[in-house]
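Propose amino acids for all 741 sites.
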């Protein structure tokens, strides 16, 4: 029996063996239980509420109470192991939530972090979602842990677009005693957008996480395949009267001083200032203005090892571009299929029509100064609108450039939408690049359908040759509690040239198909395994010029998720690559992959331990052929959490590559150190070494939130190049001060 046959046989046996008894752990494929939605009427108060984590004001005793939370994982539909009571009050200024998270083993409460926008998956926690327009699509999410750390986000289209970099003004105080933990949360109405009028009815739901049990429960029940972002399943908060959104005018100036030095050259010192302004044009539309924009406080990029012939996509980290960024997503957002990253070494090759890192950053990640810009985002009835205009300054060989983006989307049917996008890049001189596209997204219960068509416009000298300048895509996703099947068909023309997006391949037709099944048989539960999700994926690329296959990736994966949250996955990733032109896989050592057809398979195992423990790690081991040689890959990433104040993590990635043109060992080491003095003061360090480029880099950031959404940053960056001996250093001190009206 071949290795593939053995793998398929094991998967089929698991599917068959898992069928007889799923009980409450598996559930039947039923439609969303709209009848299970809950309602409450918050009580208006006139006496002040002091936020101290103690629910001792008389108003709390007469407040509306949300309780009797229902699990969605691990035992869907069953009462929570420890119930949660949420009291809801409001006055003319704010909404107040009084949370009592019951727990008769408070010593087992897990708090892993204090930092702003903490990792909500690794702690006990509480989240609330508020749908102020009651459209069943969009909302605000606020999350806390028992130590009072905060996380917030805007979500659109029920979580298909989530902006965790949105920051609202709100407050929380918490405490822990022998009965559990408590929180008092104040969310000012000026933080939210909603329509004028009385009475108001908003969508509302609460989520409680008990991390040591790996249990999630909800006030308004949510099936296991969904999460809190499924706002159409939220309950209702009714009869809110006498409240108005704020004027929503925020002015946030900044000032900074910096020093930059290269090796022994005297340091260059600089000082500058700028301002960001946020204005509520209507109750649901916001205009942003930025002048002399600066992002010096943003964390450095994590380096990546590129083992493919395509470019890498680094994530956007700059606040101005992250806020409301979801509205500019096009089609299905270019989300990768499951497991593809393992087979391709560098993740999905899906294109993204609009990629904001094209603005204000060069191809090698260096900053290009931005003179200023404007943005308008929000909703107008059934329409979502996004407009962006940014002016880059001239820098070296990069001419002054203007970037513009317009995105409009209209809600149709119960939970679907159609939209358009227009993108424009104009350089000083004859250069320009424009993109126009239409998309549609439909959801019918468990089935989602979406697609788009886009066309680019550029001068002939910028895109020589012949071929199409269109890109199209059709996508489907069918997901129930047990089954998931998805796929897409994508075409990208030879002359499709999008300078505002991420387009790794042109002149290709791409077909993807994924199939997986979620199994929770009782016999696996007896072994401490919560779920197995065997799946297969095929990702096929063919050249549009008729020359045949370009790439074929397949994934045969068998993952096991344990009750504790630890995870093991084994699998095989067969690959076929048709290389038409040689490419350098390691330029420094002049090691290349020659033209030809290559068939090779990677075998791998992944092991992740329970990330909520004081010590945990991620690891991956892979072996197999690689083009005309072999590759053995090792990844090991330990994390140590001393307490909620201090944690440290490291990641070592080693690739031992042996090809006919040469052999080398690639090493990339990353170390993170985080010390959180409290929920407003943080010290972070990111240290990296890349053996391929023989470069050391360090990024140290000290951050104090001296008032809501106002910061002081002290940032030190250093890079050492062992080849040239060059050392660059930069020290930046920056202060921001938010004035809200």
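Proposal:
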């Amino acid at each position: 029996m071949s290795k593939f046959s053995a793998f398929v046989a094991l998967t089929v046996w698991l599917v068959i063996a898992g069928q007889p008894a799923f009980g409450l752990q598996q559930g039947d494929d039923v439609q969303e239980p709209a009848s299970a939605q809950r309602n409450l009427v918050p009580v208006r108060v006139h006496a002040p509420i002091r936020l101290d984590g103690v629910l001792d004001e008389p108003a709390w005793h007469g407040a509306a109470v949300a309780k009797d939370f229902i699990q969605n994982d691990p035992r869907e539909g069953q009462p929570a192991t420890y119930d949660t009571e949420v009291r809801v009050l409001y006055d003319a200024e704010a909404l107040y939530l009084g949370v009592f998270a019951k727990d008769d083993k408070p010593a087992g409460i897990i708090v892993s972090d204090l930092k702003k926008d903490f990792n909500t998956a690794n702690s006990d926690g509480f989240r609330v979602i508020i749908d102020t327009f009651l459209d069943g699509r969009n909302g605000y999410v606020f999350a806390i842990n028992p130590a009072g750390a905060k996380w917030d986000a805007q979500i659109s289209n029920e979580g298909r677009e989530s902006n965790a970099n949105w920051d609202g003004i709100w407050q929380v105080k918490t405490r822990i005693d022998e009965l559990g933990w408590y929180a008092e949360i104040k969310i000012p109405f000026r933080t939210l957008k909603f329509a004028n009028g009385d009475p108001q009815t908003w969508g509302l739901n609460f989520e409680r996480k008990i991390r040591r049990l790996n249990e999630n429960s909800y006030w308004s029940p949510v099936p296991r395949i969904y999460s809190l972002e499924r706002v159409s399943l939220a309950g209702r908060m009714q009869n809110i009267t006498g409240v108005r959104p704020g004027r929503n005018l925020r002015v946030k100036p900044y000032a900074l001083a910096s020093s930059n030095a290269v090796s022994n050259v005297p340091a260059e010192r600089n000082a500058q200032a700028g301002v960001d302004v946020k204005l509520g044009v209507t109750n649901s539309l916001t205009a942003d203005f930025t002048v002399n924009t600066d992002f010096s406080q943003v964390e450095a990029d994590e380096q990546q090892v590129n083992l493919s012939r395509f470019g890498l996509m680094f994530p956007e980290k700059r606040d101005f571009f992250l806020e409301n960024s979801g509205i500019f997503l096009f089609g299905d957002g270019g989300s990768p299929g499951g497991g593809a990253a393992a087979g391709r070494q560098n993740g999905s090759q899906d294109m993204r029509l609009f990629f904001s890192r094209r603005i204000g950053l060069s191809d090698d990640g260096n900053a290009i100064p931005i003179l200023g810009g404007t943005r308008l985002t929000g909703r107008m009835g059934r329409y979502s609108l996004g407009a962006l205009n940014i002016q880059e300054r001239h820098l070296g060989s990069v001419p002054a450039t203007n970037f513009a983006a317009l995105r409009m989307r209209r809600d149709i049917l119960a939970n679907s939408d159609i939209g358009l996008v227009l993108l424009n890049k104009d350089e000083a001189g004859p250069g320009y690049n424009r993109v126009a596209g239409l998309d549609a997204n439909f959801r019918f219960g468990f089935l989602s359908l979406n697609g788009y068509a886009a066309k680019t416009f550029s001068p002939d000298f910028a895109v020589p040759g012949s071929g199409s300048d269109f890109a199209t895509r059709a996508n489907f996703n069918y997901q129930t509690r047990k089954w998931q099947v998805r796929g897409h068909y994508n075409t990208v023309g030879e002359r499709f040239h999008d300078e505002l997006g991420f387009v790794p391949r042109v002149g290709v037709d791409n077909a993807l198909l994924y199939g997986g099944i979620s199994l929770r048989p009782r016999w696996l539960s007896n072994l401490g395994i919560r779920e197995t999700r065997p799946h297969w994926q095929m990702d096929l690329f063919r050249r549009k010029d008729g020359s045949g296959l370009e790439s074929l990736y397949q994934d045969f994966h068998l993952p096991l998720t344990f009750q504790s949250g630890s995870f093991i996955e084994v699998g095989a990733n067969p690959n076929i690559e048709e290389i038409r032109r040689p490419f350098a896989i390691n330029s420094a050592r002049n090691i290349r992959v020659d033209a030809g057809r290559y068939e090779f398979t990677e075998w791998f195992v992944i092991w992740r331990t329970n990330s909520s423990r004081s010590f945990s790690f991620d690891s991956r081991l892979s072996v197999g052929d690689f083009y005309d040689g072999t590759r053995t890959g090792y990844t090991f990433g330990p994390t140590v959490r001393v307490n909620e104040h201090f944690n440290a993590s490291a990641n070592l990635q080693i690739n031992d590559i042996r090809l006919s043109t040469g052999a080398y060992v690639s090493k990339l080491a990353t170390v993170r150190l985080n010390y959180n003095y409290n929920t407003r003061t943080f010290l972070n360090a990111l240290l990296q070494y890349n053996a391929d480029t023989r470069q050391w880099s360090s990024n140290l950031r000290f951050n104090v939130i001296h008032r809501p959404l106002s910061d002081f940053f002290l940032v030190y960056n250093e890079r050492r190049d062992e080849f040239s001996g060059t050392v660059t250093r930069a020290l930046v001190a920056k202060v921001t001060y938010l004035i809200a009206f």
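The first helix runs from residue 3 to 17. DSSP finds six helices and 43 strands in the chain.
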